[in-house]
Automatic annotation (TrEMBL):
Binding site for FAD: 193, 218-219, 232-236, 249-256, 270
Keywords carried by this UniProt record: Electron transport, FAD, Flavoprotein, Transport
Cofactor annotation comment: Binds 1 FAD per dimer.
Electron transfer flavoprotein alpha/beta-subunit N-terminal domain span: 3-174
SUPFAM superfamilies: Adenine nucleotide alpha hydrolases-like, DHS-like NAD/FAD-binding domain
Classification via PROSITE patterns: ETF_ALPHA
Name of this chain's protein: Electron transfer flavoprotein subunit alpha/FixB family protein
One Gene Ontology biological process: fatty acid beta-oxidation using acyl-CoA dehydrogenase
Keyword Flavoprotein: yes
Organism: Chlorobaculum parvum
Example GO molecular function: electron transfer activity
């Protein structure tokens, strides 16, 4: 099997999750090549051909130019499958590529089974196994679903000159206002929907304070307006790797797990002993957060 992986840069660097695309390829025992708008001194380490467009010229998110870069690589490599991250870059690029190649497109692959690709549906509540019916397919891989392998090797770089598409002019990019940086926190106590209300978030804040940590959040807690979006952990939030991660009333959807899978010790507090968070927790306390969190804070303060 031949895969063409599509790389992605953020803030001028190769996105860390790109390594997971190689993990996906390894599971399929596939031969890989890559297309990337990137910088010559920040390339992924692998043995294969790398079709490289200059990041300085084409920018990180110029879908017209990047599409042409990938299509040029597709023409040369004739892959069975084009693989992108399930990120805002991948969401934009995958349908463009699939339309141009008249190929099937699968979004958010989280696993492989004997019959095909496993993708999420209904906001992660259901898994479907699907198989593309076209000779070439385009798919996006959910960050966190496949392990990053140890990267080694040196790609053969093939410089590709692409012309920006005139249909879209990239006027500029700007960063959202700086929020809290949770990436360096040693302890994070996160609130999920199970915390129940904005007022109850105080219980989570009290535990974070007692442990000298930061407060994080699931997307549901952010969408409910209980905590600022800059505290969201997961595929559409921050990726964190604290020594201690406490998940309070968080079910453990794959999009959340993707952002905290690098944590050291994971303590989960949940009323449901079968919640998916149990699969990554070192310790699961089956309890109502309203009972357990104040008791834990009291015990810590006594110490
Ligand atoms: C494209 C996309 C991107 C996404 N990005 C993210 C992301 O970056 N981060 C993210 O978190 N999610 C993300 N999501 C959403 C994700 O799929 C889940 O919906 C979300 O993580 C669920 O949040 P939650 O665990 O707080 O809520 P729920 O799934 O509703 O879970 C609540 C949990 O609390 C427990 N509970 C209820 N009451 C109590 C109580 N009194 N005490 C203790 N436990 C209790 C329940 O048993 C349950 O397990 C994304 C989804 C999509 C489709």
């Amino acid at each position: 099997m031949r895969l063409l992986l599509v790389g992605e840069c953020r803030d001028g660097r190769l996105a860390a999750e790109i390594a997971e695309l190689f993990g996906f390829a390894a599971r399929l025992d596939a031969e890989v090549s890559m297309a990337l708008a990137g910088l010559a001194d920040d390339l992924p380490a692998f043995d294969g051909r790398l079709y490289l467009a200059d990041l300085e010229t084409y920018g990180e998110f110029s879908s017209g130019a990047h599409k042409r870069l990938v299509l040029a690589a597709v023409e040369r490599e004739q892959p069975d499958t084009v693989v992108l991250l399930h990120s805002s870059y991948g969401w934009d690029m995958a349908p463009r590529l699939a339309a141009a190649m008249q190929s099937a497109q699968l979004s958010g692959v989280v696993g492989l089974d004997d019959d095909g690709y496993v993708v999420e549906s209904c906001n992660g509540k259901m898994l479907r196994t699907v198989r593309p019916q076209t000779p070439v397919a385009v798919l996006t891989v959910q960050p966190g679903a496949f392990k990053s392998p140890a990267m080694s090797g040196q790609p053969e770089v093939i410089a590709v000159e692409t012309l920006p598409e005139s249909a879209i002019e990239l006027v500029g990019c700007r960063q959202p206002e700086a929020g809290v940086d949770l990436t360096r926190a040693e302890v994070i106590v996160s609130a999920g929907r199970g915390v129940g209300s904005a007022e109850q978030v105080a219980l989570v804040e009290a535990l974070a304070k007692a442990l000298g940590g930061e407060v994080g959040a699931s997307r549901q807690a952010v969408d409910a307006g209980w905590l600022d979006r800059s505290r969201q952990i997961g595929t559409s939030g921050q990726s964190v790797s604290p020594a201690l991660y406490v998940a309070c009333g968080i079910s453990g959807a794959i999009q959340h797990l993707a952002g905290m899978k690098g944590s050291g010790f994971v303590l989960a507090v949940n009323t449901d002993r079968d919640a998916p968070i149990a699969s990554v927790a070192d310790l699961l306390v089956v309890s109502d957060v309203a009972e357990f969190l104040p008791a834990l804070v009291e015990a810590l303060e006594k110490r």
